[in-house]
Amino acid sequence: MFPGRFHYASPRALDEAVELLQKAEGEGKVLAGGQSLIPLLKLRFASPSILVDINNLPGLDYIKVESDGAFRIGALARHGEIERSDDIARLQPTAAAAVPVVADPIVRSRGTLVGSVCHADPQGDWAAVMIALDGSVTAYGPEGKRSIMVKDFVTGPFQNVLSYPEIAIEATIPAPKGDVAGGFLKLERRVGDFATAGAAIGLEFNAGRVSRAGIALTGVGGATVNAEAAAEALMNSSLGSDAVMRAADLAAEASSPKSDHRGSADYKRHIVHTFVRRILAGIATDQERAA
Ligand SMILES: Cc1cc2nc3c(=O)[nH]c(=O)nc-3n(C[C@H](O)[C@H](O)[C@H](O)COP(=O)(O)OP(=O)(O)OC[C@H]3O[C@@H](n4cnc5c(N)ncnc54)[C@H](O)[C@@H]3O)c2cc1C
After folding, report:
1. CB neighbours of 200 closer than 8 A, spacing ≥ 6?
2. Whose CA is nearest to atom 2 of ligand 1?
3. Are 166 and 139 in contact (CB under 8 A)?
4. Distance CA 119, CA 110 (A)
5. For 48-97, how does the pLDDT look when each residue is reduced to its tens digit (9 = 90+)?
6. Residue 166 — φ and ψ, nearest 5°?
7. What's the helix, strand, coil split of the chain in %, to 5?
8. Closest CA to 196 of 127, 106, 120, 125
9. Could you report the per-residue pLDDT of 176-186, keeping only the tens digit for each?
10. pTM score, two decimals?
11. Fewest CB atoms within 10 A around its CB: which of 1, 152, 215, 277?
12. pLDDT tens readout for residues 99-158
């Protein structure tokens, strides 16, 4: 199918982009990597009056690590750039484990982390990663900037809290207060597919005990699942088998998958249980080796 008719603008300044959206009175759409939006246009699931292409906005294509270890990822940083980032590989194990299994190399060369979080696909990978890491999104609009935690940003399937004509300009992973550990596992039917089920875990350790924990799930609910109780079960533990099993049980309970062509609801819940245990067992082994 072909998209409906729309105007196209490629502003060179952020304020101009916001103004163009504002003039469209709710009918405009931001175009970032286009890897989710273009298919939606072709299927006519979206018919905006104008596409505001942000690809020519200066200074949004960065991946920065601050001196305190916080990451700032600009709205035009592509999945592929995150995959090739030495800082991500060295310092951020959850994101480093997730990015090679986001879509395929072609999609990763154009798609953006910020666009993925904005798109809020219940089967998308980045919202789960960012929730597990207590990440946030910075939005820019006529009233200026505001920061929103990703756990509050994604409100439902393909829904976020951006208030039109706000544009998301950055994603942030906060500075760790302890030793960072984490992982991401995803079951896909074939390479490049969306998740049948996936789990993202971000932990921090102090003196061998968990001092911060985040667990989020993809593909197993109407929106990305923030498995808060499962994460809470790990606090102050040294990832002993009881704590790990309790977290896996609670994560499986937090998921609400539907049976479909990718598998039955029971199967997906079982995958969540297995993945949470597997990631945590790997982290526990690394901790023992490092001790
Ligand atoms: C074949 C294929 C396989 C895929 N597989 C996966 C997968 O396995 N896992 C996965 O997570 N994703 C997958 N994706 C989606 C991909 O990751 C997209 O890149 C991502 O979902 C959207 O990022 P984008 O930059 O392409 O956004 P776009 O497609 O440009 O935009 C998506 C939506 O977000 C809005 N938006 C984008 N950026 C902003 C912004 N800065 N401010 C405000 N609104 C914004 C747009 O208006 C639009 O509504 C796949 C896509 C394809 C085509």
Report:
1. 94, 98, 125, 128, 129, 131, 132, 133, 182, 183, 184, 214, 215, 216, 217, 218
2. 103
3. yes
4. 15
5. 999 999 999 999 999 999 999 999 999 999 999 999 999 999 999 999 99
6. -65, 150
7. 35, 25, 35
8. 125
9. 999 999 999 99
10. 0.97
11. 1
12. 999 999 999 999 999 999 999 999 999 999 999 999 999 999 999 999 999 999 999 999
Domains and CATH numbers, the chain: 7-53 (3.30.43.10), 63-173 (3.30.465.10), 179-290 (3.30.390.50)
Q: Residues with Cβ within 6 A of ligand 1?
A: 29-37, 39, 54, 75, 102-103, 107, 111-112, 114-116, 118-119, 121, 124-126, 162, 167-168, 192, 194
Tell me the pLDDT band of 259, cut-offs 50, 70 and 90.
Answer: very high
- Nearest residue (by CA) to ligand 1, atom 6, is 103
